[in-house]
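Table S7 (text form). Paired inputs.
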Amino acid sequence: MSHPDPFLSPIVAGAWRMAEWNFDVQQRLHWIGAALDLGITSFDHADIYGDYGVEALFGEALAASPGLRERIQIVSKCGIKLTSAQRPSHRVKSYDTSPAHVVASVENSLRALRTDYLDLLLIHRPDLLMDADALGRCFDELKAAGKVLQVGVSNHSPSQLALLHSRHSLATHQIELSPLHLAALDDGTLDQCQTLGIRPMIWSPLGGGRLFGQGDAQAMRVHEVLAALGERYGVSVATMAYAWLLRHPSRPWPITGSGRVQGLRDAVAALSIELDAEDWYLIWQAGAGREVA
């Protein structure tokens, strides 16, 4: 059964590191505006980003530009409890998908982001104590209240997703995938997305920057292949990495992690590339360190 898309842009801008960018409000607005100019209208958050601080930074920018909220989609995540001065009641790093915690997290995110609703709420990590019936009802109530439009999960196994999906229809699965992290291609994760008709979101599409580092044999192999193909296709190494992701039939939404406008441009440029299947396998081979069996 296919699920209606949570209306995300083909590329999603990730705000995970926004606190590290040290942008003032106007610089944050410039970054959001540059994304919009490139057709990126969706922004990925989580309550814990920046030690529970990034959502408020983004919210300040939204408050400074009336009308901006209506032009964008906001994704956020909850369910991870970090030990932090910002959350003194958390005694140990843990996962919590109890309705009380999920509802409180959503309320905190809405306040920080200065908005009345989230376009998409994700459960950030699988909670070993998840009560799927209770969480499904919680999702129903959040949607009925207009506080959340769509729900999904992040970093779940196929069986964990299937359990929750059996109680409440999920809109997406946010997972790690890159030429440096290939597991989702053959552990059932992307097969399940296609089976259920839900499009995956992809975090760390450039291997968390490893693609551009030195001294990592796997990353250097992949970089070499991406650079050679990039010359042939006339694009950057980063754009080739995004094109590799976009070639997958699950129709993934890659999430950028860059505060640089050029980083956003590199991702968007991949949308116009039709990657040859053999070239896709060349990149896979470099990441896996072997030919296909």
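Next pair, protein 2 of 2.
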Amino acid sequence: MPTTAPAFADATASDSALRRFLHGLPGVDAVGLEARAASLGTRSIKTTAKAYAIDLAISMIDLTTLEGADTPGKVRALAAKAVHPDPTDRTTPRTAAVCVYPDMAATAVAALAGSGVKVASVATAFPAGRAALDVKLADVRDAVAAGADEIDMVIDRGAFLSGRYLKVYEEILAVKAECGSARLKVIFETGELSTYDNIRRASWLGMLAGADFIKTSTGKVGVNATPANTLLMLEAVRDFRARTGVQIGVKPAGGIRTSKDAVKFLVLVNETAGEDWLDNHWFRFGASSLLNDLLMQRQKLSTGRYSGPDYVTVD
């Protein structure tokens, strides 16, 4: 099966070739990476730019509910919030998407019809990814058949960590083939990959296999999105486009809860990948509670008063 980047066909010809390519990537200077991420996080954002950044961040949110207790009513309420995040101010941007389990995708599709808000569905035995390939592909087919616009898959971290890179690559290819016109986000679960070198390798592996987005985390483990791991992935998509002409999106997910955090990530995007990624077609936040803080900060900028959490809906 072809990859997104024909220029790297030799790199994906065999398990040994893929291993040579991935282990031939430059090693990550962990101290330098974390220092740069910390430095960019100290950038001062003035009032006008802050207002722009808050609206941009709202428009980039994949508003998410991935709980065993999810109900159709909860999904419909989340969809309503995605379309009108602040019912008292219709100038508030809509979120990019609502992200749900496959069995809730049809409910989300119906609730969001005509709104322009996408439906994203996790799949491939999310979050552990521990299932046979045919089960994972059936999971994807169900979500696509229900009308999902985007599929968020998890890689087999066990295969990756044991060096079976071609297995991971071929699984992503198979999932991509089932997506049809739906865009594919490939989740690495960076908190389980242990090293920055592994995160860089996973980023390139996902892009070579045709990911439309690379995504940090499921939000279900102790360490999720961080400025450092997101910076590393932004460097990867920047370098991939420079070599192939193909642009890939990035989605940090899990642990991003405040407007201040979101603005720091937007600075990372601008300073690392560039302005082309400052759009919800290429950058997303996987979040649930983040939207409420962004709305409170937005209200404060527009009214001069801090309304507090009682003035936003509870998810």
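The two ends are 42 Å apart (CA to CA).
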